[in-house]
Amino acid sequence: MQVRNDWTRDEIQALYEQPFLDLVFKAQSVHREHFDANTIQVSTLLSIKTGKCPEDCKYCSQSARYDSKLEAEKRIAVDKVIQEAKEALASGSSRFCMGAAWRNPHERDMPYVLEMVSEVKALGLETCMTLGMLNQSQAERLKDAGLDYYNHNLDTSREYYSHIISTRTFDDRLDTLDHVRQAGMKVCSGGIVGLGETREDRIGLLLELATLPIHPESVPINMLVPIEGTPLADVEKLDVIEWIRTIAVARIIMPHSYIRLSAGRESLTDSDQALAFMAGANSLFSGEKLLTTPNAGEGKDKQLFNKLGLVAEKAKATAAQLSVDAMAV
Ligand code: SAM
Ligand code: DTB
Ligand code: SF4
Prior knowledge:
Blueprint (H helix, E strand, L loop, with lengths): L8 H9 L2 H15 L4 E11 L28 H13 L4 E6 L9 H13 L3 E5 L5 H10 L3 E3 L6 H7 L5 H13 L3 E3 L2 E3 L5 H12 L7 E6 L16 H14 L4 E4 L8 H9 L4 E4 L11 H11 L2 E2 L6 H10 L1
Parallel strand pairs: 1-2, 1-9, 1-10, 2-3, 3-4, 4-5, 6-7, 7-8, 8-9
Helix pairs in contact: 1-8, 2-9, 3-4, 3-12, 4-5, 5-7, 8-9, 9-10
The structure holds S-adenosylmethionine, 6-(5-methyl-2-OXO-imidazolidin-4-yl)-hexanoic acid (DTB) and iron/sulfur cluster.
């Protein structure tokens, strides 16, 4: 199947609305054309600066504007990050994603994040960061330090966006994605479902992603984790089948991208997740914690992988990894 960047809203809607089993079958068929169907890419997340964020994203535990009871933490030491990265490697992750509750990194933060990137990269892990908006020069310096991926989500449709975030615009987000691409990094960009948006908005989000000049290599589909104290704390939970439809359509229209099961796995059963893999999802975040909320822990994931006969993509082995392996014995 040829990769297309000219999808129309009507085409995406037609895919979305077909009978569920037809949709999942089609998605699985497309998936098998481009990927090994039993291999999953696994990333570990770490929050390197938590809470007190100036932005007003209505879903987020880390916005300073809501009383989410989250304990804020200043930048954590690079040594601590490296220790966590070694543990992620030993537990089977191939990518380490570092997130900060910033609107954007300040210049004074750059030496800190650049050092971190080069040290994590030297372990043989793929590196990913999500630090908010980036200007072109910051994107280039991150690339030069060894950053492989930058995560920056569009979150929702252009139309619904202003209901969710008022402190930066949809176009600001597209500008950051453009800076990341221009710098030569891989893009991780997706969104959240279950924000109270309509199906049309979910279609709108997928349309934006699939008509970018180059599809994001990684597309996280987060399911809202409701956070007490935020404006979306009591929003009605989205039906799981609708989340699976979103994954399946993403798989079909972005056939070479990794579709990532992100936030929300804690609330899903093994069967829900198996269905998501059938629909073409092929990456996830492992570990006990996402950034601030609990995640399906390593033990649970190992059990799930064993039950389904799935294997994790391997990290590149390096001398540093060999010593981590030795530590783990
Ligand atoms: N501050 C940076 C930013 O917003 O770009 C990086 C971190 S931010 C927490 C990364 C992404 O996590 C958000 O864009 C959103 O898609 C997702 N996210 C945050 N809180 C969430 C929640 N409660 N439920 C589901 N997804 C969430
Ligand atoms: C993404 O799309 N989801 C991850 C990662 N990129 C940075 C973050 C999920 C955060 C879930 C809520 C929390 O733990 O604070
Ligand atoms: Fe801040 Fe990111 Fe949370 Fe928005 S999603 S409030 S930018 S940490």
